Amino acid sequence: MRPFLTIHDLLGAGAATQSAIRAPGRSTLTYAGLRSLADRTVAALNRIGIGRNDRVAIVLPNGPEMAAAFVAIACGATTAPLNPAYRDEEFAFYLDDLKAKALVVLKGTDTPARAVAARLGIPVLDLVPGAAAGEFTLDGGTPATAASPGPAGTDDVALVLHTSGTTARPKIVPLTHGNVTASAGSIRATLALTPEDACLNIMPLFHIHGLMAATLASLAAGSAVICTPGFDALRLFRWLDEERPSWFTAVPTMHQAILTRAERNAEIIARAPLRFLRSSSASLPGPVMLALEQTFHAPLVESYGMTEASHQMASNPLAGPRKPGSVGIAAGPEIAIMDEAGALLPQGAIGEVVIRGPSVTNGYENNPEANAKAFTKGWFRTGDQGAFDAEGYLTLTGRLKELINRGGEKVSPLEVDGVLSAHPAVAQAVTFAIPHAKLGEEVGAAIVLRDGTELTERELRDFAAQHLADFKVPRKVLFLTEIPKGATGKLQRIGLAEKLGLTA
User: Fold this and answer.
1) Averaged over 9-34, what is the pLDDT?
2) Which segments of 130-280 does DSSP mark as H helices, in order?
């Protein structure tokens, strides 16, 4: 298929009567309906002075209206989806930092974003849902002339997101229509998506994973995206039974929660078979991948993505071979391994993963210092450490910022996670750095046990010592009912010791 130039162009992939956006208990929005909605939305924004590259912040609950608003608004302005769970001061930071020209919220909902927008003088547009899933109109705004009206072009910015900001002030990542459509095309090709597919979206739609892999890649294939209110391990199997999707994509913590409930839902898995499952946004332990494939009788495709690359960078191939513990082969931008000085390293050498290509951002906004660190000789530095094997498969050894420096000996948390996850009693394992007075950092692990199992710290340490060098074996193991997660469901190693009350 030809490459798409813009999101508006991408919407042409679907047949007029084909389902584009679905939702449990709602009638379907077809591709003809979605294209018409996009045209009406761009015209409505133009009438109140909002045009190309003007920023529209979107604070909506997960669901079909959020997916449709992202797509339709992006056709003529720049979308800035924000987490609806933010508090007043967080909305104040993001809306001010974005210089938003408008804020879209669900009509009748009470969100602190409304009051913040009023303080900042930002017009509020109320989204009024229609009958079909994703159908909406926008109320509000005053008549004005847009500086750049009409449909967006390839070089216009479709989407702005902030980096997660675990160690520094969040940075604005602008992604053009060229960036996001290139990535959607890569994901479509990797997963061999066709109009017969339907993706069950359980990912938050204020995050690159759900926006690109579930939503835009599905639309690029002329297939449907089934929009749920968000991840719910209890309701997931009912959705599978009722909606009959062909695939879903999730982060590892979601997959692990799904796995714990799969046995009691074996009948549904049998009568609502999936073509494949996908995992991304964090490393999936090898034993979990194998268990999911055996449980769902379907391949699990692990992919590697980040916001700055419009999501997907590498992926295990759907047709195989899929290597547990590896994020697969290049599947979007070009990937290489670089040393600290900026020299590219040979196959097998460990270094920083760097990328370049049409899906990669041109740079952080108004942040020359960050861009100087991030770009070297045209390559973007991901901050991840890894190496290629002889077959071109990339294995990540960890985030450079997350590597544990135990008295000069570097420990990869991902490696330790993989070993601990292989213990039959362990449902979830996260390895992290604990401050240490003499060594600087010590190895710690947070563990969630499988239902009905028992395990002591000594037993787990002895198990780890059979597979790891002594300096990599966790010195402190905490057994928890749940490990703290970020807003998108990802486990956050940085700062975990502090959250758990572990100090030097």
Assistant:
1) 98
2) 177-190, 208, 217-220, 233-243, 252-262, 266-271
* DSSP 8-state secondary structure symbol assigned to residue 202: -
Distance CA 40, CA 60 (A): 19
d(C-alpha 276, C-alpha 297), whole Å:
9
Angle 413-421/286-296 helices, nearest 10 degrees? 50
Domains and CATH numbers, the chain: 31-177 (3.40.50.980), 404-499 (3.30.300.30)
- pTM here is 0.87
Is 416 in a helix, a strand, or coil? helix
Rg value, the chain, Cα:
23
pLDDT tens-place string over residues 422-465:
999 999 999 999 988 777 789 999 999 999 999 999 999 999 99
Angle subtended at Cα 267 by Cα 261 and Cα 269, rounded to the nearest 5 degrees? 65
Angle between helices 31-47 and 64-74 (to 10 degrees): 60
Give Cα separations from 419 to 101, 164, 189, 221, 358 (angstroms).
Answer: 49, 28, 33, 38, 37
SS3 per-residue string spanning 392-409: CCEEEEEECCCCEEECCE
